[in-house]
Automatic annotation (TrEMBL):
Organism: Cuculus canorus (Common cuckoo)
Keywords: Membrane, Receptor, Transmembrane, Transmembrane helix
Protein name: Putative G-protein coupled receptor 160
Predominant place of localization: membrane
One Gene Ontology CC term in the entry: plasma membrane
Domain G-protein coupled receptors family 1 profile per the UniProt entry, residue ranges: 34-292
Xref: Gene3D superfamilies: Rhodopsin 7-helix transmembrane proteins
Length: 339
């Protein structure tokens, strides 16, 4: 494969696949099959008793669209050349459908993360585990509007037709796909912000990790941090930052390292592969951490509050902080994290 900058794609990249049509179809089929299995796996292993959110609904919608694309590819791959409702379908439509989905996925990163971030910022202090029907309807409507708007932009903007027709300049055996610059910039932003936060409080994080010990808590293995902060006059937000980083990286550190490798290698991943459920849950945890840090004084320490993230337990970050929202702990500075 090779990446070529697309002149009319608003920062998109062509990714050429120089294979015979049968090889292209088989490759796309296998990739989508693996992606669908990965989506389903993540939706199955996540915690079930979590508060509903916009990102949760969007992840489900993405998994459904991936499954629909997979079924379409399988149908065309099996029948090879057929007509449906007066439209003739061949294996070249496998490439066409994948191109359209790549373009649609590629322009949705910014709006999805913006809406998800606003959702957490506005609702992070709510304690109700089961939102009203109106809130659920609002999430479903927001997801539908984003997908419809993305599809409309791709199918109705004239310049997109020029981009799709650009493949005619290449060999007919090539299938130009697209990489999203939105995802690329978001990856850089997450890596840079995480690295800056680590550099700002690396001493406290190192001390906390060195004080960790494995204990048994409620018949489960746990980590106990016997670290007591000496900066009693430090702002609560800066005391909270090391804990947020430990919780976030304790779950997603391999994913962060993988992002760093991809960024420094300059790898261009097709947009239909890049937007997937694991990636969305990774960004979801990052947005929750930012919302907790921005509104830390509004967080109410209830059991329902800790069911926000399906993969990261943020309870460690706030217990047993002795601020206006917490009760005094038996041993200040002692934190237990269930593994």
């Amino acid at each position: 494969m090779a990446a070529i900058l697309c002149e009319n794609c608003s920062g998109q990249y062509y990714i050429q696949a120089n294979h015979q049509p049968l090889e292209i179809s088989g490759m796309l089929l296998l990739i989508m099959l693996g992606k669908v299995f990965l989506d389903v796996f993540m939706l199955q292993v996540k915690q079930k008793n979590v508060k509903v959110s916009f990102m949760g609904y969007f992840c489900v919608s993405l998994a459904l669209l991936d499954f629909t694309l997979l079924m379409s590819i399988c149908f065309i791959f099996y029948f090879e050349d057929f007509a449906l409702c007066g439209v003739r379908f061949t294996k070249y439509h496998i490439c066409l459908f994948t191109q359209v989905m790549s373009l649609t996925y590629g322009i949705l990163h910014y709006p999805v993360y913006l809406v998800a971030g606003l959702d957490y910022y506005l609702t992070i202090g709510q304690t109700s585990q089961f939102p009203k029907r109106g809130q659920r309807l609002l999430y479903v409507s927001a997801v539908a509007v984003i997908w419809i708007s993305g599809g409309f932009c791709i199918l109705k903007v004239p310049v997109v037709y020029e981009d799709l027709e650009a493949q005619n300049r290449f060999s007919p055996y090539w299938c130009p796909l697209y990489a999203s610059m939105q995802s690329y910039s978001v990856s850089w932003a997450v890596v840079l912000l995480t690295g800056t936060a680590l550099a700002a409080c690396w001493k406290e994080i190192t001390t906390m990790l060195l004080s960790a010990s494995v204990v048994s808590f409620a018949s489960q293995p746990a980590l106990m941090f016997s670290y007591v902060s000496n900066n009693n006059g430090t702002c609560f937000k800066w005391q909270l930052l090391p804990r947020l980083l430990i919780c976030f990286l304790g779950t997603w550190a391999p994913f962060v390292v993988f992002q760093i490798i991809l960024l420094f290698l300059g790898a261009q991943i097709p947009a239909y592969m890049e937007m997937n459920v694991p990636w969305l849950y990774f960004i979801n945890s990052f947005l929750i951490a930012v919302a907790y840090w921005c509104r830390c004084h509004d967080v109410e320490l209830t059991e329902e509050m800790w069911s926000t993230d399906p993969f990261v337990s943020w309870k460690f970050c706030f217990m047993p902080f002795n601020n206006e929202n917490t009760e005094p702990a038996d041993k200040p500075g002692t934190v237990i994290v269930i593994c």
